[in-house]
Amino acid sequence: MKKTAVILLAAVVFVVAALSGCAKDSGNSESKTSAESKKIKIVTTIFPEYDWVTQILGSKADQAEVTMLLDNGVDLHSYQPTTEDIAKVKSCDLFIYVGGESDEWVSKALKDSTNKKMKVINLLDVLGDSVKEEESKEGMMPEKEEEEDGSDEPEYDEHVWLSLKNAKVLTKAVAKEIEALDPENANTYGKNEAEYLRQLSALDEKYKKAVRRSAGKTLVVGDRFPFRYMVDDYGLEYYAAFAGCSAETEASFKTISFLAKKVDKLKLKNIATIEGSDRKIARTIIKNTGKKSQHIVTLDSMQSTTSEDVEKGKTYLGVMTANLGVLKKALQREE
């Protein structure tokens, strides 16, 4: 009888302990879920937007859940959102996107949003009148669709992030919205913004200095040219095979010949391309120059940046600093 009572007592103690453990685990789980639900959910389309957000968050990065939709190397012009991407946009607290022709899918996603308090930043809207129309330069391959439909409707150059001046304006807009979403840490975000703007301005001055010192003021690009905002900032000239938003990949002999003659006339030592290029057009241009000895340099437009690149430490400022070195080479002329 005593033995039975001891067994029963042990069983009761075991059950109570088990229930207590479950309650404790449940409490931890609920606490974790609550903490996650309090995080600001920020969704960005492209890498520069993502990096600006992380720079503003700084040490408070744990206060937000930040998503970069274009994280696998697909550029803005080819991107098609998945069902999961749309769901993230619909439920986030802050959505940041470029706002050009490539983002036509956004309007429906925002219309069906489940978070009616969502804040939205459209880069082109923020920049207003400083947004430029896509430019067709002498010698550049025309877009096939332009030839076919003859449309006069303007197409805006979406690559606004490639201007440090624009980056400063856009960073301020991003900081303002993050501070509004998390007023408790607004002071920290404000300090991070001020420091980041200082770094952007310092790099901008380096670009100005480099251009002033350069004998050459024109570059030739055997590729698409998404850097119009950059060259306009510093009064530079350029010639390219295609416009920045072009989907064309084959250049005519007329375009190749035109660009080769420009290289000869300008006595350029280097021809530029952009990241991801197979360099085929640039090499063909070189073959058609007089010296045939030019080198190929690569500018990074940050359209193919992946999440893996981010994990390895890639930043907007880092890329723009590297682009300055490439720009110097692209402007070099033979003595």
Automatic annotation (TrEMBL):
Positions with biased composition (Acidic residues): 144-154
Span of the signal peptide: 1-23
Any one Gene Ontology BP term: metal ion transport
InterPro entries linked: Bact_metal-bind_prot9, ZnuA-like
Organism domain of life: Bacteria
Region (Disordered): 131-154
Biased composition (Basic and acidic residues): 131-143
Family: Belongs to the bacterial solute-binding protein 9 family.
Protein's recorded name: Zinc ABC transporter substrate-binding protein
Species of the source: Hornefia butyriciproducens
